[in-house]
Design goal:
Layout (H helix, E strand, L loop, with lengths): L1 E8 L8 E4 L5 E5 L6 H13 L19 E10 L2 E10 L5 E7 L8 E5 L2 H12 L3 H7 L1 E2 L6 H4 L2 H12 L2 H30 L6 H90 L3 H80 L25 H61 L7 H81 L2 H8 L5 H63 L3 H25 L4 E7 L4 E7 L6 E3 L5 H18 L14 E4 L8 H16 L10 E6 L2 H6 L2 E6 L6 E4 L1
Length: about 800
């Protein structure tokens, strides 16, 4: 599995969508300050693939960024040349969602094709693609904080489980099951073959084959004799059919002769009666024609009356409408004259109201000035300056009472009278305008009605050709009379047509009778000659059939011929017997041939089945032996032990290099388990458990084991792995290393990056999570996590 890209959103420090591109990275560092979200990157990969993270397991809701509703991880990775994408999200509410896609370069629209969208199905598919479950993944690919050392110093059962998953040791259990199944199947198949040989191929012998061949020869001889009898009977049947055909033709000709004679008599009768009937029909046709002419119906006049009816009715309507419009115009003219007088009177009243209002305004204004002067005098004393002209006042005139309120009421009353007169005048003018329009409209309608009445009267005169055309009621009466005449003429014409058709039919029958009489007379002669010819042919056919029956000894056929009976029934009965014999013989021949072929094939098949039975017994014995060797997981335990020893040797080599020849790693066997131990060459060189190592020492030993596992795992195991472990993420322990140990670790990572030859890149992705700047700078590439209040972001270099 090789990572390609990762998008995180609402995931711990990554509130906003954050993209990380792994494409082209081999050895790189993920660096940044503490708490910036470095470990969240590998947590995002673990969450996308398995729905859980090392620190929290499946309780991932606590990873949702503050203020976000849900977290999302979108991870793309490559496996064995194929490209996949998994999108997983979890919210505070609702069910989690996951979907797995596969890249399809041939799709023109959307290259990502959905593979699975159910959590369980996605989990199974990821395990198949990576060859690892979650526990195996975090112990061999993603080595998280706090769990980096578990494969080294963890419980033996857990280590065996992970190693069994990594080495695919389950294949040996499946091999044992397959061997047991094959042994059972082979034994059962061998038993089936033995029973089949005893039951189905008991008669597959050379003696049975010779007996059936002799029987076949006898049946073929019998079939030849029956074929000769069938040919003779077929000849007899043809002769019988010819005799029966000749006799049938003679009988048919006799019937036709009788029919021809009857037809001649019928034609003669038709000729006698037809002439009298034709004369009667001619007289009836002439009488009907005279009656039609007496009715005196004229279709053209009838049509003119129908066409004139509409103009007559419309003319009467126009005259009535003209009378009403004349009255309307007279009324409109009178109303207009009255309105003209009303406008003049309203104008006079309005002018008077305007004068009255002007007088009231003038009087009110004078009183208002006097009232204002009175108020000024009330506040002055002799010698004060005048507030109007500024001169000193010598004397103060006495005050006076001003009737200002009464003047104001008169002015308001005059104003209301003026408004009412003005409104009345405006209404009178509007009414006058409306009445003028009504009068004009009435005049126009009257003019149109006059034109309409003249037009319909002109059309009526044109239709009837009369200067003084009758009224509509008169025209309707004439139309009714014409309708009755037309109906009577139609009835008489129908009767005449019926009689004419009857005469035409009778005339045709008369002519046909003449033709039929001549044809029937000729047919009588022809049929008499035909009967004589068929009688001669029947005699010859009967003689030939009798000779054939005598030659073959068919006495029953001769007897039928002598009695004048139909010999074909007897011949058919003989044919049926011979056909049944031939069918039985052919069936026996077919059965004999099938038996011969079956016995021949059975002899060969029995040889093959005997050989197959022998091979199946050998297969069952071999499979039983193999299943016994793999029983009780002894072989799996051996492979697992050998793999651990090989990993211990490679890890020891790495540890020796990293620790500058101080430590070696070894595997100590015990009856119950295998444990890793370390040898300290700077101490007493005694083996001690890896659980006694310090934090920095544990990190170095765990890293050495992880490097060995990544390098050697493709070579180990029960079968070729479907997926290489092309990725390794380290998130542990660099802060506890001194400078020399850190340098050694960096060198080891370089060697892992370059591969076995130390020249070309190995193709493996190695990611190191660290805040040690000196280690990050040693890496060819870096993913820097920038911490901020708005959320972390990524810079790649």
């Amino acid at each position: 599995m090789r990572p390609l890209s990762l998008r995180l959103e609402g995931f711990t420090c990554y509130r906003q969508p954050t993209d990380i591109n792994f494409d082209g990275l081999d050895l790189f560092a993920i660096t940044g300050p503490t708490g910036s979200g470095k470990s969240s990157i590998v947590d995002g990969i673990s969450y996308a693939l398995y729905g859980r993270v090392p620190r929290l397991g499946r309780e991932v809701k606590s990873l949702i960024s503050l203020g976000s509703e849900r977290l999302l991880a979108d991870f793309q990775f490559a496996v064995n040349g194929d490209r996949y994408r998994i999108v997983r999200s979890t919210g505070h509410k609702g069910a989690p969602h996951v979907q797995l896609f596969r890249y399809d370069a041939g799709d023109d629209k959307d290259h990502w094709r959905g593979v699975e969208d159910r959590a369980a199905a996605v989990a199974d598919r990821v395990r198949d693609l990576l060859g690892l479950d979650y526990e195996g993944f975090i112990r061999s690919v993603l080595l998280p904080q706090g769990q980096f050392h578990l494969f080294l110093a963890g419980e033996p059962d857990q280590r065996r489980k992970v190693l069994s998953e990594l080495l695919r040791l389950d294949v040996y259990g499946r091999i044992m099951q397959a061997a047991n199944t094959r042994a059972r199947d082979a034994s059962a198949r061998a038993g089936q073959l033995a029973r089949r040989l005893a039951e189905d191929y008991a008669d597959a012998t050379p003696q049975a084959l010779e007996a059936r061949k002799a029987e076949l020869a006898q049946r073929e001889e019998e079939s030849g004799a029956l074929d000769r009898q069938r040919a003779a009977l077929e000849e007899g049947r043809q002769a019988s059919d010819a005799l029966r055909a000749a006799e049938s033709a003679r009988a048919d000709a006799a019937g036709k002769l009788e029919s021809a004679r009857a037809a001649f008599e019928e034609a003669q009768t038709t000729l006698r009666d037809g002439k009298e009937r034709l004369e009667v029909l001619d007289a009836r046709i002439e009488a009907l024609q005279s009656e039609i002419e007496a009715v005196g119906y004229e279709p053209e006049v009838h049509q003119q009356l129908k066409l004139a009816l509409t103009p007559a009715r419309e003319a009467e309507k126009a005259a009535a409408r003209l009378e009403g419009l004349s009255k309307r115009q007279s009324a409109a003219d009178g109303a207009h004259a009255d309105a003209t007088k009303g406008v003049a009177e309203a104008r006079r009243q309005a002018d008077a109201a305007v004068a009255t209002l002007a007088e009231a305004d003038s009087a009110l204004e004078g009183l208002q000035r006097r009232e204002a002067a009175s108020r000024l005098r009330a506040g002055l004393a002799a010698g004060d300056p005048c507030p109007v002209c500024g001169q000193h006042v010598a004397t103060i005139p006495p005050g006076e009472h001003v009737a200002l309120d009464e003047a104001q009421r008169k002015r308001d009353s005059a104003s209301k009278a003026n408004d009412a007169a003005t409104a009345a005048f405006q209404k009178a003018e509007r009414d006058l305008v409306r009445l003028e329009a009504d009068s004009a409209a009435a005049a126009r309608d009257l003019e149109a009605a006059q034109a309409d009445a003249a037009r319909w009267r002109k059309k009526l005169v044109e239709q009837l050709g009369e200067k003084a055309p009758p009224a509509g009621a008169v025209i309707e009466a004439r139309i009714s009379e014409a309708d009755a005449a037309a109906k009577r003429v139609a009835e008489l014409a129908g009767q005449r047509e019926g009689v004419g058709k009857e005469r035409d039919g009778l005339q045709a029958a008369f002519q046909a009778a003449e033709t039929n009489a001549a044809a029937a007379e000729k047919a009588v002669t022809v049929h008499e000659e035909t009967i004589a010819g068929h009688e001669k042919e029947a005699a010859a056919r009967g003689k030939a059939l009798a000779a054939l029956a005598s030659g073959h000894g068919w006495t029953d056929v001769l007897d039928a011929t002598d009695r004048g009976a139909d010999p074909s029934t007897v011949i058919s009965r003989r044919q049926a017997g011979v056909a049944a014999g031939i069918a039985a013989a052919n069936q026996a021949i077919g059965a004999a041939r099938a038996d011969i072929k079956r016995i021949e094939e059975g002899i060969e098949q029995a040889k093959k089945l005997q050989a197959e039975e022998k091979a199946l017994k050998q297969t069952a014995d071999t499979a039983t032996l193999l299943a016994g060797l793999l029983k009780a997981d002894h072989f799996q335990a051996y492979v697992q032990s050998a793999a651990l020893k090989m990993l211990a040797e490679d890890a020891s080599r790495h540890l020796t290099l990293i620790s500058e020849n101080r430590y070696e790693l070894d595997l100590e066997d015990s009856p119950d388990s295998q444990e890793f131990v370390v040898i300290d060459h700077w101490g007493e060189e005694e083996k001690r458990s890896v659980k006694t190592l310090s934090g920095g020492e544990t990190f170095l030993a765990s890293l050495a084991l992880a490097l060995a596992l990544a390098e050697r795992l493709p070579e180990l195991g029960a079968a070729v792995r479907a997926t290489r472990l092309d990725s390794l993420f380290l998130d542990e322990g660099f802060g506890t290393l001194d400078d020399e140990s850190l340098e050694a670790v960096a060198d080891a990572l370089d060697r892992l990056h370059l591969g076995a030859d130390g020249q070309a890149p190995s193709g493996r992705v190695v990611g190191v999570i660290t805040h040690r700047a000196e280690l990050a700078e040693r890496m060819p590439s870096r993913i820097r996590v920038i911490k901020s209040q708005e959320g972390s972001r990524i810079e790649q270099e």
